[in-house]
Model the fold of this input.
Amino acid sequence: MTWRRFSACGLLVALCGLGGCAALGKAEPVAPPPQAEAGTTSVAASPEKQGLRVQIEAPDELKALLEKHLDIVRLGRMARADVDDSEWARLLEASPAQAKDLLQTEGYFAPKIDVVPDADTRNIVRLRVDPGPRARVTQLTLLIEGELERSAANGDALAKDTLEAWRRSFGLREGSDFRNPAWSDAKSAALAVLRAAGYANVAWAGTNAEVDTEAHTVRLYLVADSGPLFRYGSLQIEGLVAHDSETVSHLMNAGRGVPVTETLLLDFQERLQKSGLFEGASVMLDTDAAQAANAAIVVKLREAPLQVYTFGVGISANTGPRASVEHIYRRVFGYAASSRNKIEWGQKRQFWEGEISTHPGENLYRNLIGGTIENLESDTDTVLSQRLRLGRTQDTQRIERLYYTEAERSRTVTIAGNRTNAYALSLNYHGVWRDLDSVILPTQGFSFAGQVGVGRSSGTNASPGIFTRVYARLTGYLPLGRTWYSQARVELGHVYLRENMVVPDSQKFRAGGDDSVRGYGYRSLGPVVDGLVTSGTSTVTASVEVARPFLQSMPTLWLAWFIDAGNAANSFAALKPVYGTGVGLRWRSPVGPLRLDWAWGAETRKSRLHFSVGIAF
Done:
């Protein structure tokens, strides 16, 4: 057998400007020819111009490529009178070689190409193409030089993991079809993997594709120079006016000497944007190789206004129409602290909420003091609650924590005119754990919210004593195939207290509403006392929902089907679940899903509309 082996670079030099495959010596990746849109098997000039026609007989996947780039096809679009015989003959003779060059970019290195003029008329030419087998990759050799290779050889665990992940991620594996676009993409992606791992100056020391045209095989050889691993050394901050550089350093949330990975930079930028202190933030690595061991991260900031007033109007299926005003002050009396005050006046809910919190400190912790006054009306009672809170919070990409001490008073007035008061002083912990593909618009993963509180309470006609409150909410998201998506939720809570004890109403539970059991009014489900719905010490709710895009032209508009169940009672044994089923529309907006649901309450045998924006964690 005669072997004709040549490098991909040498093979494709003759591609008439189409680019060449990389060979040893850091050759540039080959740009694939533009993909043509699906067309017919012939290209013809208008009959009025008596144009030339070129009929291509080839597999469908190659027709568009040849029709778009062959010179003889472009000539066929011209009027016959504008082309002399010598030019026509030259292009006719060059067509097989040009077509062969084009086919090689798609991995066909031994095609058979015939140009057959029509026997009856010189205005028609047939180009018959038999591409033969597409070449496959039979050997892949990936080598690394530089600091990554030395660290891995010395047993560094991080370097070994990085090197293994890099080799696994290469896009052209043994057995894959060889195409020039795929070859270029694989090389670019391989460099991106190492840059994301902290090797910002990585480059190819050499790449080569060795083709055996008779066996239709390709052997790939690649050597990368990783360059140095960049480690965090300092911050270069631009744009600070009112705020402290210490706040920016705390938002970095990384120790000196850690590798500067792509994830580290993106998370830092996201924390800057979510802090509420800046309107714009960009984060870049200074890629000076001489300073790689003590690399500088350049941060460019644009501060948000120190004070902002926000006015709003809205309507909720739970609490009716409302108007609100909110004031944010991002530098309270010149200290590294922010304040927020919000007043909302609605049909069923009126409240004031205020908080002063420090700017993020070590490990992203913030100290806070806040208070709330809320008047909440339901079909059976009105609850006025007042709270004062002192605590500490931490917000990270996946976890939110809140520790706080709270003093609370609530007064409940039933529609019959009965009044009760309750008081509590408690220690509490709230946490949210997320593993989601997107916090705003999740389709896969889960979130878990848990709450634990211990306190002492007293109240009207009740004995003082110690109570404990626990609550958990688990929500899961799972794609079902390519177009269907599912969501499921389980929620439960319980307050442990002795007989003849009371706790403030906010410590207890009711069910019903948008994020509970749809088909029933907000807080309309609970134990019935003297014919009135009250709050209970136990609750269980669950929900299952499936959805899919409603229209192919509008992929952000989904149609959903759901079933909810649950209730609240004064014990789990006494809890009798009720059911709600329905359909809804989902608009996956940039700020979160907007939901409009029609639900049927099996217990009341009535339907309700529910609508909300965002996701409850």
